[in-house]
From TrEMBL:
One of its GO terms (molecular function) is diguanylate cyclase activity. This is diguanylate cyclase. It catalyses: 2 GTP = 3',3'-c-di-GMP + 2 diphosphate. InterPro entries: Diguanylate_Cyclase (IPR050469), GAF (IPR003018), GAF-like_dom_sf (IPR029016), GGDEF_dom (IPR000160), Nucleotide_cyclase (IPR029787), Rev_trsase/Diguanyl_cyclase (IPR043128). It comes from the Bacteria. Residues 376-512 form the GGDEF domain. GO terms for cellular component: plasma membrane. The lineage of its organism: Bacteria, Pseudomonadati, Pseudomonadota, Gammaproteobacteria, Chromatiales. SMART domains: GAF (SM00065), GGDEF (SM00267). GO terms for biological process: cell adhesion involved in single-species biofilm formation; negative regulation of bacterial-type flagellum-dependent cell motility. Its EC number is 2.7.7.65. Residues 321-348 form a coiled coil. Its cofactor is Mg(2+).
Length: 512
């Protein structure tokens, strides 16, 4: 993944070195950073690899946290770390430690705060655990009645889903995979399944691929083999999914005869029970989310179904959002490219391809202001082909067009520096803007143009000037004042061009 995604906040080394366990979670990221003291505290329960300073939501859920007042283990619904990570500011005592050895549990004071350390729009959460003096008195709690337990479990699941969906609402494209993985891990842990996964269908519903997977420790993964599975390989599954949007099998050995291919696949993956729910958005079947039981069989209940459907709906909306966003971005890029093309067309002369009058006016205005601000001279050359009417008359309009293009190429070669522009001013008249050029530099450019045109030797046997095509040029240069406008400058350079014509053509005259 890109460095920017994994990059640690700049203040992290400070928190990392603190002797106090600290957790830090940025609003827009699923990752929960844990400093060395926190990793040491949670080490035995965390799945994090050595050297990794982050924990997942699933890691946090597994931590053995106990209420300091009654020594009861916190369930998911009341887990203070999860509550703090979802944005509740709090301060409370809790016990952390071994479930088998109550005496080894240590008491911590949990402080959580919403902070804006990373200058993002959204707050981040900073949690610290200060060791508290002594153990709280352990009170043996009573087991809750079954219906309360069920209610609590249902509430806990809803809380978990709301936590995950909050993460998914703001998910950035490059974080999507991590978030889906976190969601699958949380669902897998919560539903006590051995695998949980997401498959996506191709838009024509002829193939499916296992795009995301979570597996319990010790359970084998089959994701690599479950890519591009054609409809023909698992016809029963594909038709069930398209028809019912659910595939729930409590005992795979009891699948009907027409599901022989599916049964063979389930046996190969050691699956005893399987539950899959469609991910649908706007009636489109995007894929499905599912879970497997490997270590034991399980009779799926309506609650299991409801939960899996909830997760499927949530992931479908997320995937669809990402797709919308991607197609919107694509459309924006196409619009931008079309816009650029239009702007270019609007500023280009159709015949010669150099700047047109519109771009010339715009550029002259800008350069006048820029040179006036910086006290720089602004040079301007105006030129006109000599005896072009007779050229057209004798050689034809098409040959005239070709000559205009050749001249434009010569002019374009003169402009190299930033702000310089060669343009077709109109008809057979051209202009060059030369910011920063004094009168002698302009004269130099004008002479270059005459020389290069002479070298091209575009035959004009009907000219009374030379036997080839020539141009007359007027040029001027001055440091513009703030009141100067382009019109005054053009009048001066036009008068110089008129002078060049009057003096016999094929020459360059400076403005007075
Ligand atoms: N082939 C072609 N000719 C053009 C184009 N635009 C203008 N012209 C021609 O340019 C010629 C300009 O002629 P005039 O303004 O009479 O000037 P001239 O014959 O060049 O003579 P002087 O400028 O006095 O040397 C006209 O015949 C126009 O038709 C164009 O896009 N293509």
């Amino acid at each position: 993944m890109a460095d920017t995604v994994n990059a640690l906040p700049h203040f992290w080394p400070v928190l990392q070195a603190l002797p106090t366990p600290v957790l830090y979670k940025e609003h827009s990221r699923s990752r929960i950073l844990a400093n060395a003291a926190a990793l040491a505290l949670f080490n035995s329960e965390s799945n994090s690899s050595p050297g990794d300073s982050s924990l997942s939501l699933a890691d946090i859920q597994q931590l053995p946290l106990y209420n300091a007042d009654n020594a009861k283990r916190y369930d998911l619904l009341h887990n203070p770390l999860l509550m703090a990570l979802s944005g509740s500011e709090m301060q409370l005592s809790l016990l952390v430690g071994d479930s088998a050895a109550p005496d080894s549990r240590r008491c911590y004071q949990l402080h959580s705060k919403l902070v804006a350390l990373s200058f993002t729009l959204h707050s981040s959460v900073l949690i610290s655990l200060l060791p508290a003096a002594g153990h709280a008195q352990v009170i043996s709690g009573q087991l809750p009645a079954t219906d309360i337990a069920e209610l609590e479990e249902a509430l806990a699941f809803d809380k978990l889903i709301s936590l995950i969906s909050t993460e998914l609402i703001n998910v950035q494209d490059q974080q999507l995979d991590q978030h889906i993985h976190d969601a699958l891990a949380a669902v897998g842990e919560f539903c006590h399944s051995d695998r949980s996964y997401v498959f996506q269908f191709t838009p024509d519903y002829t193939e499916m691929s296992n795009t995301h997977e979570w597996v319990r420790q010790g359970i084998s993964s089959h994701q690599a083999q479950l890519q591009h599975i054609p409809k023909a390989a698992l016809p029963y599954f594909f038709s069930k999914m398209a028809q019912d949007y659910v595939f729930a099998v409590s005992d795979v050995s009891k699948l009907p005869a027409e599901a022989a291919a599916e049964q063979q696949e389930f046996v190969a993956e050691d699956i005893q029970s399987v539950l899959c729910c469609a991910m649908r958005s706007d009636e489109e079947l995007l894929g499905f989310v599912g879970c497997d039981m490997v270590s034991r069989r399980r009779d799926w209940t309506s609650t299991d179904l409801r939960r899996m459907k909830l997760v499927g709906d949530m992931l479908a909306k997320t995937l669809q959002n990402v797709r919308y966003r991607q197609s919107l971005q694509q459309m924006q890029q196409q619009l931008l490219a079309a816009n650029n093309e239009l702007t270019q067309l609007a500023n280009q002369d159709g015949l010669t391809g150099i700047a047109n009058r519109r771009q010339f006016d715009h550029c002259l205005n800008n350069e006048l202001k820029r040179c006036s601000r910086n006290g720089l001279p602004l040079g301007l050359i105006l030129l006109d082909i000599d005896r072009f009417k007779s050229y057209n008359d004798h050689y034809g309009h098409q040959a005239g067009d070709a000559a205009l293009k050749q001249l434009a190429t010569v002019l374009q070669q003169q402009v190299k520096r930033q702000g310089e522009l060669a343009a077709r001013y109109g008809g057979e008249e051209f202009a060059i803007i030369l910011p920063g050029s004094n009168l002698s530099a302009c004269q130099q450019v004008a002479n270059n143009i005459r020389q290069q045109l002479a070298q091209l030797n575009i035959s004009h046997q009907h000219s009374d000037i030379k036997s080839y095509l020539t141009v007359s040029l007027g040029y001027c240069s001055s440091i513009p004042s703030i009141q100067d406008d382009g019109l005054q400058l053009l009048k001066r350079v036009d008068a110089a061009l008129y002078q060049a014509k009057k003096s016999g053509r094929d020459q360059a005259c400076p403005a007075q």
